[in-house]
Amino acid sequence: MIQTVCTITLVVFASVFAQHAFGEEAAPAPYKCLYSITPVKVDGIIDESIWSDSSPVGEFLVPGGNGEKAKAQTVAKLAWDLDYLYFAAEMEDAALVAALKNHDDFLWHEDVFELFFRPSDEHQGYYEFQVNPLGTTFDIYWPNRENQGELFKQQLGADTFQYEVVAKPTVDSKGWQVEGRIRWRDMMHTGGRPAVDETWKFALCRYDYLPDLEPELSSSAPLTKHDFHFSKDYRTIQFVGPAQHQGRFHVAGSKVIGAPVPPPAFKAVPKYEHFELGTPMFLAIEPGTDEFIAITQDNPDGKCRIVRVDKESGAVTEMLKMEDLAYNLCFHPNYEENGQIFFGTNDVTGADSKCHVRRYTVKDGVIDPDSHKLIVEWPSNGHNGAAVTFGHDGMLYVTTGDGTTDSDTNLAGQQLDHLLAKLLRLDVDSAPEDKGYVIPQDNPFVGRAGTAPETYAYGLRNPWRMTTDAKTGQIWIGNNGQDLWEQIYLVRRGANWGWSVYEGSYPFYLERQLGPDPHTKPAFEHPHSEARSMTGGIVYQGDKYPSLRGAYIYGDYSTGKIWAGRHNGKRATYHQEIADSQMAIADFVEDPDGDILVLDYQGGGSIHSLVPNDQPDYSKSFPKRLSDSGIFDDVSTHTLVNGAIPYDVNSPLWSDGAGKTRYIVLTD
Question: Are 487 and 534 in contact (CB under 8 A)?
C-alpha cells in the first residue's frame, strides 16, 4: 500500500494541462461549471435541478497515462453561485471501507472522495478537500508543492474551513454518494470567488478499497503519474454565468423611480486603486508618515502579514510575518520616538486557542521580530475581541470577548474573576522587563474580591474594533450581537454592558445572574433587519466634511450600511444612516487629507472613501399607491404589466396568512 502523503492525496489545481501519453490528442475542453440560481440543499439526495442540468466532469481514469478506465464507476458534477462551490458524486463501490470519524484524519487509508482546486496561475497555492462514506472530512491549503512533508505538518489545522457535506449509501446499496458545498471565502488565500468565465485547474479523485486488494485510484484528470500534486495533468474548469432571461424583461411606463425616502448623504467611491493589499483585515496611518500599515491574510507560512504601503507609489513592503492571526494594531503615543506597535492576535489552534496582545518595535521601517514582548494573554476560541487602543491617560485598553462561538454557553459574560468579556485597562509603560503590564491602581475594580483587577468594564459578547477620539478621549467599541441586536458602546468606567443576561438593551437570558453592577445600555444599537455584524469605527475630526466632525462613524460588515452618531456621555445628540454600500466593511480610517476611508474585506481589499451623494432625491415623487406605480395592468387582481419577471424563494416566510407573489421589474 502506498504510504506517503505525496502519493496518496488526490489533487485538483491550476496549471497548464500537458499533452501526454494519450498520443497527440488535444487537451480536453474546459468543464463548464454551471451557475445555480437557487441554493443547493446539502442533504446527500442530489435531486436539485442544477444537478439535472449539469454534465458529469468526465470518466474517472486510473493514473498512468494510458487511458485505462476505473473499474468502479464515478459520476461527479460541480456547480456554483456567489457564496459556494457545490459538488455531487455517485460512486460504485463493492465494499465500503470507512471507519474514521475525526476531522482531518488520514482518510486516504480507506474509501474517500477528494477534490483539489488551484484557482490561479499567479498563486502557487491550492486546496484539498476530502470526504469518506461516513461524512468525515479533511481539508488543507497547500501554499506550494515544495517540501510537502513539512508543509503537511505546518498547514494541517492552520485554517478553519467550514465546508458542508452529506454522504450516504446509494439507493441500491451498491456504492455511496456525496453532496457538499465549499465557501468561496475559505479560498481567500488565492483570491476567493471566481468571476464569470474565469478558469481554474482541478481534479476530482477517489480511493476505492477492496478487502485484501490494493486500492484503486482514479481521477477525473488524466494523470500520467501517481503524483496527485502534479499540476501539468489537471483539467480546466470554467465558471459559467447565470442563464439569460428569454423574452421581454423591461417595463415601460414605470413610475417607481428612486425610493420613498431621501438618499443617504454620502456614498462610497473607490480610492487608492493603484495598489492591492491581498485580503487586508486592518488599515492604519503610521504616525509621522503618510503611509498605510495594514494587516493582510496573505501569508502562506502562517496567518497574516504586516505590510507598509507607500500611498503615492503603491509600493507594498513586508514588515513582519505572523503565525498568529492579528485582528488590529495600535501605535504607542510616543511611537515616533520609541517605534512601539501593539497587536491583538489569536493563535487559532482550536479548542485551546489563546488571544494575545503583542508588542514589537519598528526599526528602519520594518518590525524587528526579536523585539517581541507578550503583554497579556487569555484563553479564547471564538468571540475573541483583542482590539487595542491607547487612552489619553496613557493606558492601554484591550477588549476581550466571551471566548465562545454562540450564546455565552460558558456564562463568561457576567463572571468577574477572569479576563473574558471585558474591557481591560493596563499600564504597559511602568511594567518591568519580565512582565507585560502592571495594574493601574485607579482601575475601578481594584480591591474588589473575586474581580480581575485589570477590568475597566465588562459584559461584552464579541467586540469588533475600538477607537479613541483624538480630541475628547472618548473610547468607542463596536460589539457583535447574538439573535436580534447589534451594539455600539461608549466606554464608561465600571460599566456592565449586560451580556449574556441582556443583548444590548434587551433581555436575552434573564434567568442568568447579572453581575453586581447595574446594566449599562448601548450608546447606539441596531436590529438585525439593518445590521448583522457590527464593525466599530472612528471619530471623524477632519475639516473636509463639517457635518460629520466629532461624529463616530461606523458600519455593518453584512449589510454595508454606515452610520454617524454623537453622544455627550449621557444621551445621543445625533444619529443617522449616512451611506448604504455593497461593501463587507472591515475597518474605518481617517486619511490625513480629511477623507473617511472604508476597507472592503471581500472586495479584493479595496479602499473606498465617503463623498457627498449626488443621487437625485425622488422621495417626493415616489408613487404612494399601487395604481400610481405604472407597473400594474390590473390592481384589483394584482396583475403586473408584461415584462415583469416572476420568481420565488426556497423558504417563504409566513405572513399572517397573506398571499405573496414576487416579481422583478426592470424599467427602460
Answer: yes
Q: How far is CA 142 from CA 9, 116, 223, 616, in A?
A: 12, 10, 19, 50
Pairwise CA distance, residues 92 & 71, whole Å: 9
Q: Is the peptide bond before 547 cis (omega within 30 degrees of 0)?
A: no
Contact in structure between 478 and 463 (CB atoms under 8 Å): yes
Nine cell digits for residue 105: 484524519
Decide if pLDDT at 384 tops 90: yes
Q: Where are the domains of the chain?
A: 5-239, 247-257+621-668, 266-607
Residues belonging to the chain: 668
Hey, which residues does 200 pair with through a beta bridge? 237
Which residues are paired to 235 by β-bridges? 202
What is the CATH number assigned to the segment(s) 266-607?
Answer: 2.120.10.30
Strand 662-664 with 645-647, pairing: antiparallel
Q: Specify the DSSP element, H or E, that contains 269.
A: strand 266-271
* pTM across the whole model: 0.66
Report the DSSP beta bridge partners of residue 88. 77, 179
Q: What mean pLDDT do residues 29-57 have?
A: 94
pLDDT of residue 350: 82
**Mean per-residue pLDDT, 562-584:** 95
Report the C-alpha gap between 467 and 487 in whole angstroms.
Answer: 15
pLDDT tens-digit profile of 151-191?
A: 898 888 888 898 999 999 998 889 999 999 999 989 989 98
Q: What is the DSSP letter of 8?
A: H
- Lowest mean pLDDT across 291-300, 329-338, 483-492: 291-300
Other Cβ atoms closer than 10 A to 369: 11
How many C-beta atoms surround the C-beta of residue 480 within 10 A?
A: 22
Residue in the block written with cell 420565488: 648
Q: Which three cell numbers stand for residue 559?
A: 449589510
Look-up: residue for cell 455627550? Answer: 568
Fold adopted by 5-239? Immunoglobulin-like (2.60.40)
